Amino acid sequence: MNRIKNNESGFSAVEIVMVIVIVGLIGAVGYLVYKNSQQAKVVTVTKTVTATPKTSTTASPTVDQTANWTSYKSTDGHYSLKYPNSWVTASNPSLCSSGILLVAPGINSVGKCGSEDFGQISFSGMTESSHLCYSLDSTAFSNITKSTVTISGVTLTKQSGTQIDDSAGNGSLPKGTIEVDYCYSSTSYGFMARYEQKPTDQNVLTDFNTIITKTLSFSN
């Protein structure tokens, strides 16, 4: 009977040792599995960023179309301007009154000083009369428009219209003549810039407007 009890007692001890070993192995394996799984979660991502070179945008310089134009200062000293250097002036400027400039793109359309023909384009400044401004007559002109523009601190009235028939408007200008005026009047000085484009004249209205808005200036 005692032998049987000893065998049973010894078998139980072995089993205990085996259980401890197995538990240790399971723990070690579990630890290795856990460690490997944690390392697998750590992923280093290297992102290559390619720098896009900056494109320098340099604004194109503004071209001054009037840079090479002919400069003019009135004989009365009150205004100055520039006009295209290909234009012609009155052939007898000595007959022009003080402060008057007659210009045009061609010899056939330029005015004549000492006459009533001021031609396609004229500039007039007068100290003895400050009332150069007038309104286009609606019975003589169609498509009449009016506005104002400020040049070097002086407010000019701009008006335009188209002559209705041969007998209407200024003198004997033919039907369809386009007239554009810029005028300024004060108690001491008057200024008028006039553009009259007959149906046979070259259209240089854009240049005329540029003269006023980009080059005209008044002295004190």
Describe the fold and architecture.
The strands form two sheets. This protein has a seven-stranded antiparallel β-sheet, covered by helices on one side. 23% of the residues lie in helices and 28% in strands. With 220 residues, it is of the alpha+beta class. The chain has two domains: 1-30; 70-218, Protein Transport Mog1p, Chain A, CATH 3.40.1000.
Separate helix tally: 2
Backbone structural class: alpha+beta
Give the C-level CATH assignment of the largest domain: Alpha Beta
CATH topology of the largest domain, which one? Answer: Protein Transport Mog1p, Chain A
Largest sheet: 7 strands, antiparallel
Order of helices and strands: HEEEEEEEEEHE
Percent of residues in helical segments? 10-25%
Q: Within the largest sheet, what's the order of strands?
A: 3-4-5-9-8-7-6
The total beta strand count reads: 10
End-to-end CA span: 143 Å
The number of domains: 2
Uncertain stretches of 5 or more adjacent residues: 1-9
In what range is the share of β-strand residues? 25-35%
CATH architecture field of the largest domain? 3-Layer(aba) Sandwich
Kindly provide the radius of gyration, computed on alpha-carbon positions and rounded to a whole number of angstroms. 48 Å
Overall shape: it is rod-shaped
Averaged pLDDT: 80
